[in-house]
Specification:
The protein has 208 residues and is of the alpha+beta class. It has four helices and twelve strands; from the N terminus they run ββββββααββββααββ. A five-stranded antiparallel beta sheet has the order 10-1-2-11-12, covered by helices on one side. A five-stranded antiparallel beta sheet has the order 5-6-7-8-9, covered by helices on one side. Strands 3-4 form a two-stranded antiparallel ribbon. It is globular. It comes from Candolleomyces eurysporus. Belongs to the peptidase T1B family.
Length: 208
C-alpha cells in the first residue's frame, strides 16, 4: 500500500473551447475505511485558477495554505493577479524544495490565462510529488483512480467542447472511473471555468 493511496481520492482536469473543467471526488478514507463524504480537494486560487490536491489529507491542508500564502505574496509584490502558467511553476518549485522529504500530493491545475493580445487561453497542468510538470492539451488526471480515469477520458473526450458538453464529459468520466476504484467516489464536485464565470456543481455518486 502506497502512502499516496492512504486517504484515497482522485482529480481530473479537462480542456474545452475557451473553457476548462476540474473535478474531484468527495471521499476521505483510511484505506478501505470511509471517514467522510464531503472532503474538499479542489481549491480556488484566483477567480480564474483552481488547483486539485489528491494524496495524503494532512498534506492537502498544508499545501493549500502554503499555496495561498505564496499567491498572496506574489499579488502584493507584483501588483497583479497571478497567471495559470506562473502558478504552475510556483507549485512545481514549492514541491521541489521538499524533494528529500516530499509532500505526498500530486497537484492538478486548471485555469484561464490571458494572452498579451487580450485573448483567453484555457490551461491545464499536473505535477508529480516532487514537482515535475506535465502540460497537456486534452486532460490530466491524478489519484487512486488515475488509470481508470485515463481509460474513460480517452474514450469520451473530444476537442473544442462547449462548457455544458465539457461538464457532461468530465462528470461521466469521473463517476464511471471512481465506480471502479474502492478508494475514490462518494459523490463529486465539478468546476467549469469560463472567461466570464465559474460554474460549480455537486454530483451524487454511489455510496457503497
Amino acid at each position: 500500500m502506497s502512502i499516496m493511496d492512504h486517504n484515497g481520492g482522485s482529480v481530473i482536469a479537462m480542456l474545452g473551447k475557451d473553457c476548462v473543467a476540474i473535478a474531484a471526488d468527495m471521499r476521505l478514507g483510511n484505506q478501505a475505511l470511509g471517514i467522510s463524504n464531503n472532503f474538499q480537494r479542489v481549491f480556488s486560487v484566483t477567480d480564474r485558477i483552481y488547483v486539485g490536491l489528491p494524496g495524503l489529507a494532512t498534506d492537502v491542508a498544508t499545501l493549500h495554505e502554503r499555496f495561498r500564502y505564496r499567491v498572496n505574496m506574489y499579488t502584493i509584490k507584483e501588483g497583479r493577479e497571478i497567471e495559470p502558467e506562473t502558478f504552475a511553476h510556483l507549485v512545481s518549485s514549492t514541491l521541489y524544495e521538499h524533494r528529500f522529504g516530499p509532500y505526498f500530493i500530486e497537484p492538478v491545475m486548471a485555469g484561464i490565462s490571458k494572452t498579451p493580445t487580450g485573448k483567453i487561453k484555457p490551461f491545464i497542468a499536473a505535477t508529480d510529488l516532487i514537482g515535475c510538470l506535465n502540460f497537456a492539451k486534452d486532460f490530466v488526471v491524478a489519484g487512486t483512480a488515475s488509470t481508470k480515469l485515463y481509460g474513460v477520458a480517452e474514450g469520451l473526450w473530444e476537442p473544442d467542447l462547449e462548457p455544458e458538453d465539457l461538464f457532461e464529459t468530465i462528470s461521466q468520466t469521473l463517476l464511471n472511473a471512481v465506480d471502479r476504484d474502492a478508494f475514490s467516489g462518494w459523490g463529486a464536485v465539478v468546476h467549469i471555468i469560463t472567461k466570464d464565470k465559474v460554474i460549480t456543481r455537486t454530483l451524487k455518486g454511489r455510496m457503497d
